[in-house]
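Appendix C: a fully annotated inverse folding record. The material below is reproduced so that readers can follow the format used throughout the book. The structure is listed first as tokens, followed by the designed sequence.
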């Protein structure tokens, strides 16, 4: 990226700020009490946080999140090491990809270094572990919620 491309467009920014200030003035004028203003702002913030995901997540983001959660390097996650922590992280990663992306088991296997059969096994193993281990279930559900978006009413 050149320096001219990195320069911000100050005119557009000024127009955007003027528009935002006008909307803020309208909001203050039409919402008389402080309690109503706070309620309206909280509702707006909640709507922004609960905005449903329209696109499936990208698989590199899933790999990064799982490696950070387990405290391992991405190359260890994608490697062939059979230590329990790496295997569980790989299985969880495959399970998340199967639940949140439109990737086939073959494609997930290609990304993770599995065969299609191993991917199916990883998904089943993660589902079984979620049923028996409450801590693992909480961690898996938190990651799943992160990539599926919030479950808002």
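Designed amino acids, in order:
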């Amino acid at each position: 990226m050149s320096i001219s491309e990195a320069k911000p467009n100050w005119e557009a920014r000024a127009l955007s700020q003027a528009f935002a200030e006008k909307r803020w003035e309208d909001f203050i004028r039409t919402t008389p009490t402080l309690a109503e203003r706070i309620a309206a702002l909280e509702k707006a913030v909640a709507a922004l946080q609960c905005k449903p995901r329209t696109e499936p997540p990208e698989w590199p983001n899933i790999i990064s999140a799982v490696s950070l959660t387990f405290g391992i390097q991405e190359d260890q996650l994608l490697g062939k090491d059979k230590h329990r922590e790496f295997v569980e992280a790989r299985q969880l990663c495959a399970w998340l990809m199967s639940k949140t992306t439109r990737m086939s088991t073959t494609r997930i296997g290609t990304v993770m270094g599995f065969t299609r059969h191993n991917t199916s096994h990883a998904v089943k193993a993660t589902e079984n572990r979620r049923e028996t281990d409450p801590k693992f279930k909480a961690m898996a559900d938190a990651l799943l919620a992160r990539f599926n978006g919030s479950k808002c009413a």
